[in-house]
Design brief:
single chain; 459 residues; 7-stranded beta/alpha barrel; globular; alpha/beta
Length: 459
């Protein structure tokens, strides 16, 4: 019998207002309160509240046989508190059923796991403390930001106390293998790895209302048939998607809520499929093999790597400037600095700077509140510059850091001059154009041609 794990991600960043160069050092409030409240209220009314109502109804109707899990960022929960507290109440109702599991993760849905173990562990604890405070449940399964995972990262997360992690079932990692099995970490076989079924997840997230799709319309009956028809030896199907799929990405008039309302009952009627939370699933199953992930993977874009956030020079520059401050932020006890630091780390700010083209580029553009990636970069760097000035006042640079900064600037300046010199040398050493060569050759021939003898005056 196969088990289905329905996993939903919820994250909304604190959006920044248009923060100009002349605001640096003069105004240290960065947030667009109007946009944050308007967007949160709209999504709460269109998605979170109606979707939660359907889930609660189906859990009660099935007497707890229908189960789901949620990965909610701390930043999203902070916004619920400010703008839509009734959403938290609806999640508390779901938690009370015992059929809903809340997953662990980073508080800001950040890339901190790629930078600093200490900060990573701190942000995870901060997230899990808030989940436990609100929903009386301590997360046991880990879902890293954007499903980012590698062998080394998985081992680190195991040492932080998480025996199970959920990640992307990337084709270039699995090859011929199916994501519909339980795997284990290649470095640490004790850690269990759940792999997302990206085809079924994306069918629901992106293709549901696409009338040109060959499988349109996608109904609960059709999805159930697909699940039943999967090879019998496959044991688990992990469907992971943004919760905003319901009512926001896929609008209400697409029939998405009818689909959500019908699917649990349709699946449970088969007697061949069950629902499980991730924690329950790993207790029932044994890993079939290890999965080798040498370089970090994610669930984003065609590449399924980190290029959605660190794929160009703008993103790398912003990322490096942000985390260059980490050691001094660790020394700072100012609560507002700490809060701003957390919100600055939301990976959405880097996502807006992506310069990809084609279908991936369209997705990035859809979610980008700025006119262009370059505008997003300038705005973020202005905010970061002001934040740095505030941090400098509270935790001044040490003499060593000042000297290091001067040395770095000196090296950068010398590198720039070397590059300019190389360009000049290349320009000077460039071969003459063909036309110029021909002209020069002709001139040489004329000069070398012997002059006729001068006629004698006597003749």
């Amino acid at each position: 019998m196969k088990t289905i794990c329905l996993n939903f991600q919820i994250h909304q960043p604190f959006r920044y207002r248009k923060y100009r160069f002349f605001d640096i050092g003069n105004d240290s409030y960065y947030y667009d309160d109007y946009a944050n409240e308007t967007i949160m209220r709209k999504i709460a009314d269109n998605c979170y509240l109606p979707a939660n109502h359907i889930l609660l109804k189906q859990i009660k109707k099935s007497k707890g046989k229908f189960k789901v899990s949620f990965s909610i960022s701390g930043v999203a929960l902070d916004q619920f508190k400010l703008y839509a507290p009734e959403v938290i109440d609806s999640f508390k109702e779901l938690a009370a059923t015992g059929a809903v599991e809340f997953l662990s993760g980073t508080f800001a849905n950040s890339l901190v796991s790629m930078v600093d173990e200490q900060l990573f562990a701190k942000q995870v604890k901060m997230h899990d403390d808030l989940i436990e405070e609100l929903f009386l449940q301590r997360p046991k399964v880990f879902r890293n930001s954007e499903l980012i995972y590698s062998d080394e990262l998985g081992d680190l997360i195991y040492r932080m106390g998480f025996e199970t992690i959920l990640t992307e079932g990337a084709k270039h990692i699995l090859g011929w293998k199916s994501p519909n099995f339980l795997y284990c970490n290649a470095l640490n076989p004790r850690q269990k790895v759940l792999m997302r079924n990206h085809r079924l997840s994306d069918d629901l997230s992106f293709r549901f209302s696409n009338s040109s799709w060959s499988e349109y319309p996608l109904t609960a009956s059709k999805m159930t048939t697909w699940l039943v028809d999967l090879p019998k030896q496959e044991e688990i199907v992990n469907i992971f998607l943004n919760y905003e799929t319901f009512g926001e990405i896929q609008k209400k008039n697409s029939g998405i809520f009818d689909f959500l309302d019908s699917l649990p009952e349709m699946i449970l009627k088969t007697k061949e499929l069950t629902f499980s939370t991730p924690s329950e699933a790993v207790k029932m199953l044994q890993p079939v093999s290890s999965v080798h992930v040498l370089h970090p993977i994610s669930w984003a874009d065609e590449e399924r790597d980190l290029s959605a956030w660190l794929g160009n020079e703008l993103q790398k520059e912003a990322f490096n400037h942000l985390y260059a401050l980490k050691e001094r932020v660790k020394q700072c006890t100012d609560p507002q600095i700490t809060k701003d630091w957390i919100y600055l780390q939301s990976n959405d700010h880097l996502y807006y700077m992506c310069t990809k083209f084609f279908s991936d580029g369209e997705v990035h553009k859809f979610f980008n509140p700025f006119g262009s990636p370059y505008e997003a970069f300038i705005n973020y760097m202005n905010v970061l510059s002001d934040f740095t000035l505030r941090l400098n006042k509270l935790v001044p640079l040490s003499e060593y850091e000042v000297e290091l900064t001067k040395l770095k600037l000196s090296i950068e300046e010398k590198s720039r001059k070397l590059e300019e010199a190389e360009l000049v040398i290349k320009k000077l050493s460039k071969p003459a154009p063909k036309a110029a060569k021909t002209k020069a050759k002709a001139a040489t021939k004329v000069e070398s041609k012997p002059k006729p003898p001068r006629k004698s005056a006597a003749k």
